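hey so i finally got around to running the thing on that chain from the lab meeting. sorry it took forever, my laptop kept dying and i had to restart like 3 times. anyway pasting the input first so we r on the same page abt which one it is
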Amino acid sequence: MKEKAFAFRGKYLLSAVIIFYGVLSLFNSGISLSALKISILILMKVIPIFIAVILFTAMLNYFLKPKQIASHLGRESRAKAWLWALAAGVISHGPMYAWYPLLEDLRGHGMRTGLIVVFFFSRAVKIPLLPMMVDYFGWTFTVVLSLYILIGALIQGWILEMIEQNNGELK
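ok and heres what got predicted. didnt touch it at all, straight out
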């Protein structure tokens, strides 16, 4: 597989935001400065997440080659891959966008798109929140809802794979 060249994505959005801030500062510099300060504060909060994701991806790439992982999650993968995607989604934490680079890399090495859907959908089951859910709603509700979420994740992944098969690869 050919290595992808680095592509700066989001250049149009970044340009539009800079132009917007420039125009806003012409009309009301106080609001634009306030918005800029808030943006910088948000950026400062997000940078550690980006660094963690980059380090995690680098370590994963060093110890486990994405090609190796994707071979277990590729077109020939069976039920075990679906269960791994479910489990990974349930135990994953943090903001969803933090997982995008890793999953894009795995997809580039052959991971099935349906498994990515299962991963994202199964993130709705939050292990740390299950005890509180049991306290508020009881065991039966919690177990049934969690099973529905996980079954729904599988159905969503299968539906996407059927769409892919009927319409060709999604890009």
